[in-house]
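We give this protein:

***
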Amino acid sequence: MHQSLLIDEILSHIIQFVATDGQRDLKRLENTSSLARLARTCRCFMECALDTLWRTQHSLSPLIMCLPRGTWEIHSSNILYLTRPPAESEWARFDVHSRRVKCFSYPKQTKMIRLHEDALPLLFAERSPQSLFPSLSSLDFSILSCSSSNFVLIRDFLSPKLTTLTFTLPRKLCPQSVCGVLKDLSRKAPCLENLTISSFFPVASFPLEISTHELPDLRRLVVSSSIRISAQSVLNIASLRYLQELALNLHPDFDADVLRNRANHNTFPALQYLSLAAYDLPQCTSIVSLISSPQLEEVSVSYDVQAQSSVITSFLSAIGTSVRSISVRHNMQTNTIADPPFLFYPSTFAPLFACRNLRTIQVYNLGTLNLDDEFIIAGAKAWSKLEDIRLCSLPWSSIIPSISLNALTALTQHCPQLTRVHLTLDARDVPELPIGDLSMAGGQSLEVLNIRNSVIGPIEPVAQYLRAIIPNMKTLYIEAHPELRDKWMEVKAYYDLLSVGPIQNGS
């Protein structure tokens, strides 16, 4: 054997390459058979290969099947049951592998034998999770159980080594149990960096006060829509020095006025990613206004109560200029309308021109976006790094925006990294193409064009124009009535027949 293979770091790298060879899903270790064979090759390889093989698990079933056969059995539908708690002498093989487990994470192994919910209390009846998994640093408890009766077992997994915790609220929710787990976090898992509380089932919402002063290392916090976060809890969260990612749901009783004038250089000082699902947009504005971080990159908000132009402008003015991705979506309601006062002109979105690093702009269902060429051209010049732009009125909006093919040309000229455009155009007139001013790189990256219900004139000139400014378009989406859709499908068919090259002005 080569002497280099006796160096643990080199051997670890080699085994990691074996583990990821041909990997299709980066979240799941697929090459387990090769690792198992490597572990059986020689003693020098065994420990490192087994460490890699068992490091991340997506189920408890493989470990339980390491127990003696008399302690478990498989029933119909591939469900694994524990028949009794393991005796003290029966843990040896389990312990050899469980001490290597550092992470229980998604995705679940859907093809694997499923562990029955009643197995967990039996498994941990005599030994605690901490003693069984001494190296565990990341836990998605929903991998182990989503049962209400097993929810309290989360507390037994908490340890100073735990840095990531995810759990799902059970269908039969006990708010006191959730509060108890959160209170134990600071005492039992003080080094926690990532906390996610999700809900797959519709559960009754309940209030929760989050005190964060004893979780100083928290970097990521995602909270389920079933939990009502108070404004005071948001202020507590805002004081976290290292928080980089935050996702919250704001219920109708969230009092945004409590946050007014509370911003300072210590509120959200490191925040980079923010996602809010709110009752109304002013709630989102109150939180965004707290952010002092110069590194804010992504802001995504959705809200239920339709907002007027001044409210949207206030929100966009509050996000700062460092943002790279902005998504604003109104969740359509039965009373959502596309008419005034929900008619939006370019001035509504003017604050975005100051965001020179924008890569993604997504605006959905606010009302009617009555934009024009001047706005799109100015935006194209301001957002030279733009990759994705989606400006979408409500589907039933009747106003045809004054956005012509000239605006599309400007986007391809000034945004060389642009890959997706989602706009309603007025393509009844085909302008002269400024061949001399068109960059050779212009439009090369643009592959997906969604023109929604854009009106159109002659078929062939539009196809020729699109082929000239977007030579690599792969997909054209249309959201229109059958007659208009058929016209655009003819455009795409003719586009595909054309070779790339200049067209005649005025075609």
